[in-house]
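Quick one: co-fold with 5'-O-[(L-methionyl)-sulphamoyl]adenosine.
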Amino acid sequence: MKSFYITTAIDYVNGSPHLGHAYEKVLTDVIARYRRQRGDQVHFLTGTDEHGQKVQASARRQGIEPKAYVDTTAAEFRALYDRLEVSYDDFIRTTEPRHKDVVRSILQKLYDQGEIYRAEYRGFYSTRQEQFLQEKDRLPDGSWPEIFGEVTEIVEPNYFFKLRAYQDWLIDYLKTHEDFIFPKFRHKQVLEFLKEPLNDLCISRPKDRLEWGIPLPFDEGYVTYVWFDALLNYYSAVADKGLWPADFNVIGKDILVPPHAVYWPIMLHAAGLPPPKALLVHGWWLQSGAKMSKSTGEAVNPLALVDQFGVDAFRYFLIREMNVGQDSEFTVGQFMVRYNSELANNLGNLVNRTLNMTTRFSGGQLPPAGPPEDPERALQGLWLKTRDEALALNEGFQFHTALERTMVFLTETNAYIEQRAPWKLGKSAEPRDQALLQTSLATMAEALRLAVALLQHVMPSTARRINSVLGYTPGPTWAEELHWGGRLAGAKVAASLVLFPRPEKPGKPA
Ligand code: MSP
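Sure, here it is.
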């Protein structure tokens, strides 16, 4: 079995999770499930980023200790991902000893090798962004942009990591590893960024300014810069499992340059470790054209949507709507359009018809199909095309288009039912009509079974429920599930299944 190690970014726990955080975990889950279906031995890591200024500040505002604060908020993130059926194999928290030990040992190693040095730092510091600013960050009038919040001048000794010494190595690495970043256009952005000389990275924060972090092993008066700490989670979680390097670090576009594309490969290389095989960079969910975020205060709470429409409708929407790598605007209106037309009226309708008609015309037992005629041949032909396209699209992370093709196949299956009109055949005693009735029941059920096999990484519980009402247990090898065949002949189906009910009208009295 091929092993496949995939990670998500680890979320800051200084607030509640929103749709943007949920999207990334669901996207990574879809990839992980898809790989498992294909037979890979998958290890899927997610977790929470718990140190640093922002978390310390949020805890203070609530008047509680940072540890108590992160225990509560990290649990909230984890509970959301459990609810969303994110099938992670491991959940790492950066406050765990297993992580802190690895961070400290790598820092010590780099320090011993001479990759980290102490120097006087004088500079303008943004507390909000937890970073020192440069002259080029100023606005033309000399002031600092809004996003930096309060900016103060600081002079203090600190520890620096020799980033600049590896700039040429990184450029060369990127040029010789063209698949390092998906999508490709981001690769070019990183090379563009590297045209300017890098500064060495300040990796320490004096304890009197920031207590909430991992103490430097060689100077306990300092804690580790939160990014240096957080990035190492991908390695610390598997350091004793022999799984490094990761196949993919899945991240949002805001944390590509410089953390993941510059600091991360250089940190690893300096420590004698290989970079991850690839970075998969997704775009943003927007609201009114701006990035959905905690600070805007109107971020969509995923749980509200899940409570109203169900986990799978939520997962389906995120994956169907977003072209991986691009941005997408979130609106409830668009959510409703997809819910009604694609899930309720298309997939839900096919499930209802299959169960109803099998119950009405065949005593609840699926008959075998007779020889295919033109309508059956056309549908089978469309299946082959849909399957092959969907597989290729999934391989290239074009999940949204793969789902669109699957929806077309479901639409055509519903059209096939209209054409065969089993409700008319059922009224006729002619042997030919009775044979066609059996064929049409068998055909719609088989088409449904196949479509479900292409949907299951996106809607796992819906897939389980549909297979169950069809009286079907999928075999161990997913690829074999994708062949058209008479697998359901003789199966006993349930009388009905409510999958995507019409939602309660908002504002309706309880
Ligand atoms: N803690 C850092 C990541 C450290 S990884 C070693 C961080 N946390 S975050 O909570 O701000 O963001 C976590 C992930 O959620 C990031 O990949 C980020 O891009 C993603 N998203 C946050 N808001 C988003 C949207 N509005 N849309 C899509 N994803 C975005 O950064």
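If it helps, The longest strand covers residues 116-126.
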